[in-house]
Each structure stands twice: as C-alpha cells, then as structure tokens.
Batch of 3 targets.
Target 1
Amino acid sequence: MLPTDTVYGIGADAFSSEAVGDLLHAKGRGRGMPSPVLVGSPNTLHGLVTDFSEQAWELVDAFWPGALTLVAKHQPSLTWDLGETRGTVAVRMPLHPVALELLTEFGPMAVSSANLTGHPAPQTCDAAQEMLGDSVSVYLDGGATPADVPSSIVDVTGPVPVLLRAGAISAEQLREVVPDLEVAN
C-alpha cells in the first residue's frame, strides 16, 4: 500500500498476474473492474501505450504529475493481466514524492484505491490498514494524503477525448487544453 496525491492505494507489480489478482482479491473486486497503472515518468508511456494522440500528450504535459488518469490503448506486445481491459489501460502519474520514488525505482504498478469495494477510500495509512488488515503485505506510510477527491478519468482511445469521471480536474480545466473534450453520460 502506498500514498498518492488523491488517496492511499494498493499497489502490485503491473506485470505479475498473480500480484494483480491478489490486489483485486484484497479489494473484493472482480476482473471486470481492472486496475489502473501508475507510472513514475511520462516517458514510460512509450513502452505501455499505442496510438497516443497529440491531444493525449497535451493532457499529459498540462496535468502530469497529477490527478488525471488517461485510458489509452495498451501495447499489444505487453504480457500483463490487469483484468478485463479490452485492450486498454488506465494510466496515471501521481503527484506524490513517495509514490514517484517507488514508481521510479520499481517501474509501473497496478494501483487501486486502498479500500474494500463500495467503502470510502482512505486518506491515512492507519485507516487503510484498519480496513484491509493482513490482505496487504506492506504498508508504506507517507502521512495523510492531501485530498480525498479521485482522479479525473479521460478516455483518449478515440478521435475526441471523453471525460469518463469528473474528479480533481474539472471538465472546464480539461477543455482549456483540449477544447473538443466530450463528457460521457
């Protein structure tokens, strides 16, 4: 478990299907809700995603590191199993020094909020440990997280970016960078 700039997250090696399966199990989550991947640098995207548009790069330049998750087509050659992703990956670079250090040292991690599905996401290590107990092997306490607002999620797999979930970054802020952003129903 690790702190991010939004809430605490359960992390696992993104390339270990067993570790990702353990992460989903700890949350009480099925494969139909695949885990996002956190990265320590925008450069990591070159090895993870394909067909990444100019608008997607503009969003990265404007909001990373930060609370913006981008859903992109993943490289077909990747041998990972994040759940039922239908060829996509939700990827984000968090703005938290502990998370960035960990991601830079160990590479991309599958990370999902450190809560049981349906319960509020924790902002402290103690709250996460109270909820998840022994289902998580290591708890990395980085202090209280600065916000409990989730990241905004934008799908960049099509010709026009689509806001799937409004969160820490508003549609108006996103439209300052990509004016033709659509909002999903």
Target 2
Amino acid sequence: MDKKGITGNNGYLSASAIKIIAIIAMTIDHIGWLFVDTRSPAGVCLHFAGRLTAPLMCFFITEGYHHTRDLKRYCGRLAVFALISQIPFMYFEKTAFGAMDKGSVIWTLLFSLISVWVINTGRIEKAFKLPAILFMIFCARQCDCGTNAVYFTLAFELARDKGRIKQLQAYSAVCFIALLPVVKELVLSFSDKWYELYRFGIFLPVLVLLLYNGERGGSTSPAMKNVSKYFFYVFYPLHIVILTFLRTKLGK
C-alpha cells in the first residue's frame, strides 16, 4: 500500500485543492454564523457546506503526521498559531454566540495530532495509550469542533493502512454514531429542530476525499510551498477578525 492510498493518481483533487475547498467551506460557515439566521433555509445551506472543513482538516492531520520531517516542529507550529488565533476566535465567539469559553479549532487539531502520535509511538506503554487518548479527547471537548474532531482523526488514522475506501468507511461509521442524538431530536420534534439537518453535511467530505489523488499539488517553488504551508494558519485568525469586525459595524 503506497502513501497515495487506494485512489492512487486516478483522483482529480490534490491536497492543496482540497485544503482550498476546506478554507472556502470554513469561510462560508463563519459567514453563516455571523450574518444569517441558523433557523433559515439559507443558514442551513451555509452550515451544511461548512461541515466540510473539520473532517478534511482531520484527514490531513493524519497525512501530515506520516509525511512531516519534524513532528515537534509540526506540533509547535499548531501550538503557536493556536495561541495567536485564540483572541480572534474569542472575539468571533462573543459576537456570534455571546460566549467565549472555548479554544479555537487549531487547539482541537493539535490534540488530534497528539492522539495520532500516541497511537503510533513506541515511547508510551500500551496500558497508557488509552488514558492518554482519553485525555486528548477531554481537552478537545473544551474547544471548537470538540471531541468529534479527534474521533474523525482516529478513524482516518486507524484505517489508513487499509486504503482510502476503508478510511472513508471508518469515518462514515463515526459520523453515523455522532449523528444519532440529532436523528433522535428530528424524530421527536422535526418542526422545532428541522434546522439541525445541516449537521448531516459531515458526510460531504466522503465525496471530496474520493476524488483525492494523493498528490501534494500547488507550486513546486520552495517559497510558494512555505506560503502554502502557513496560509491556513494565517487565514484562519485573519478572516474571523475581518468578518467579526464587519458584523459589529454593519449589524446583523
């Protein structure tokens, strides 16, 4: 099994293209939270599309773990940008939801990455691996996207050697479990909870990842590769500051 997975070179989308899709979906989602009523058809559509982002980033956390030349630098980069992004994220949370008691999604991605390391490392005894992962899940619970992001990442990681299709099957199984409470709410009170249908957008990444060709994509220039590497980390806090500022100035 090579690193490109079961789709090999037959897919149409490179890693760079999929990350751009994730960034666009994230922006759409944040626009929805700030400017559109969640209980409206438009709000449901925006958030449905927005469910693409977290699972795609979780997928590339597993890919990044296996392809990075320096795991410590990778973790350090996530930690630094998590700190940088925290105040902008709190600004967004306060404006959109009236609260600011969570960590940003970059913290969640860091905890997900550490969970992948725990699974693969020989430095931790097997008896301590599960407690360590449970601690990462607890930490992620305090952050945006929460525990599901860790579950998604672990699903991708544990099925990674079995090929892309098995990865997506494992991910889909986690989605079904995660959505059971939503299904219950919809069955019991669809007229009041219909807008929760947006949560089913977490299945969209399956369609995108089926088109993944296993290639990095983007420019071959070393300078442009560095720009690409840091683009998400810079874009994340920058776009939420701009959108939140516009919301406070223009009103909803």
Target 3
Amino acid sequence: MKLKHVALIMDGNGRWAKLRGLPRIEGHRNGVKRVNEIIDTAIEQRLKAVTFYTFSMENWQRPKAEINALMRLLRNFIKSEMHRLHKNNIIFRAVGDIKRLPSGVQSVLREFEDLTRHNTGLIVSSALSYGSRAEIVNALKKIVEMGVRAEDINEELLESCLYTAGIPDPDLIIRTSGEMRLSNFLLWQSAYSEFYFTDIHWPDFGRDEFIAAIKEYNGRERRFGALPAKD
C-alpha cells in the first residue's frame, strides 16, 4: 500500500546533548533544525501527511526552565518558518490540548493554521500537549455532549471527534534513539501502522535516515488481517 502518512516520535535530544557535554536545550535546538529537513523530504516523497510528536502531556512534568525554553524554541521556529512553509503549500495542524500552552504559543499556532488553511499540499501536524488517552476521553465526552445514543456510536463518529480528524491514519511510525514504545502517541490511529525504530538520536536523523525508513516500509507487506496476496 502506498505510503501516505508518516508520524515521528522525535526522541533523544537530551541524550545527544549529554554525549557532547552540552546543555539539554542544545539538543532540542539542534533537533528543531531537523524538522524542516524532514518536511522538505516528505514533500519530495509526495507524502500526504507527516506528524511530529513535539510535546507530550507527560512533558509537562519536566523542570519549568526546560519547558519555558522549549516553548520559546517552538514559538521562534514557527514565526521564522511559517511563511516559507506556506509558500511550499503545506497545511499546518496543531493537535492536542492546545489551551494548556502559553498564550504566545497559542497565538502563533492559530496564525500558522489560518495562513495555511486553504493550501492543498502536505499536511504537517504538530502534536503539542498531546496524550492519546486524553484525546480518546475527550472524544467520548464530545459524543456524550452531542447526545448520541449508544447504538449510534461507531468508529467513524469517534474518529471525527479526535484531534486528528481529517488526517489519514499513519502508515508508518518512526521512533528515534533506541526506544521501542509509543509513549501515549496516536494509540487509536496506529491500529494498523508499521513501526520503524532506530538507535539514531533525533538531532542526527536527517534526510538519508528518513529515506532509509521509507525504503524499508516499502519492502514490507501490509495485510490488515487478510491472507498474503497470491503470486
């Protein structure tokens, strides 16, 4: 099946910095630089969507100074890159509990979404203040508030109430830095996703590594519970 959507768990910024005797924030700063490279490669590969796990619900437990630094990096990146990405016809989506983010970050996220709303190219999603369990609970609350009868609830309705409504499910989920778990990321959406794990830390994960993951995916056979195709 043709690859349409790749989701990325960008892990290892802190470990990358520690190996070099640098502050953790330098790992994050170098990690941000990779995002544009991955977006440009996704456009080149004619993908439909790419999603970055940027800041999880669990990340709110980190030291306040690190959180503040991450929020500044995020805001500065969007302000500096949104017009270039808009010219590349991307559609930006921020998915997650966005109201928990600082007001300045919320403002630039809305500006970016509004700027690219009518574009027709690659959907670039940033999962921010995101937790998949909370997303599913939130969707169920919406359904209850809508007054939907139990017998009328189905997968399509629930999907329409998720943060990711309108975005195709990921065909491939990539996680860097050697960890092999989803960490509360796209639990509903990843039901039939393929997974690719690499020991490379995120700041070192560039175009060549992304292409290698795509090539491995293209060599796999996705059956979705069916029997293999006959020769």
